[in-house]
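Read as amino acids, tokens; as here:

___
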Amino acid sequence: MTAYAHHTSRMGQSDFWRPDFIVRWFHARLPRQRSAQEAFDHILLGCADLDVGVRWIEDRTGARAKFGGNHPGRGSRNALLSLGSSHYLEIIAPDPAQPNAPDERGLKHLATPRIIQWAVSTTDIAEIQRTANAAGIKTVGPQPGSRARPDGSMLRWLTLGIVSADSLVPFFIQWESGTQHPSADAPALGTVASLEFETPEPDSLLRLLKSIAINANVRQDHERRIVLTVVTRSGETVKLT
């Protein structure tokens, strides 16, 4: 029996169209709201040189990232640190072996390492796209991605981008079934104390995040920044931006 038939058989068809019932029925079908700290898959720390980025993080946290691999055709390579199960920090920089590849994230122009993006995990990227489109939000993708790990095994995933001029808006990632999550064997950085956002337009960002089922702590500031606060293995609290 369908949900509709079940309710109308018990309540009468006219009851289904009562405004209070419609609201409850609609909200029961929305994706479960998650906090940004719960929802994030990984945080991207951009830099113009990978070795510089690895040292920058090590100087601040005491953790040395492990080389992850190259992104063929994307012009970038990375090193990784685990932030707990299914969460990690990706240090991403231009790949010298791909000098003619597009620099989509503007990594070559970064004067100092900084957090540039964040990715949200999902197990149903098609449903995320439907939810976003229903809310009037344009998307790009899903697009496949892959890279070879140092041991030769392949990581594969799908990403879905949100069309927005706001750099604080995340993209979504769905890992291929059977793919080992990068956090599983990356060196441990520590645990996440908070993931927050600063922007000149907090209300606009909050509305967009809520429409894709994410709750976040957003503060007003003259600059747009992703602020990641971690507790390192030694117990020190470090703020990364």
User: Anything to note?
Assistant: Residues 1-30 have pLDDT under 50 and may be disordered. The CA atoms of residues 102 and 215 lie 33 Å apart.
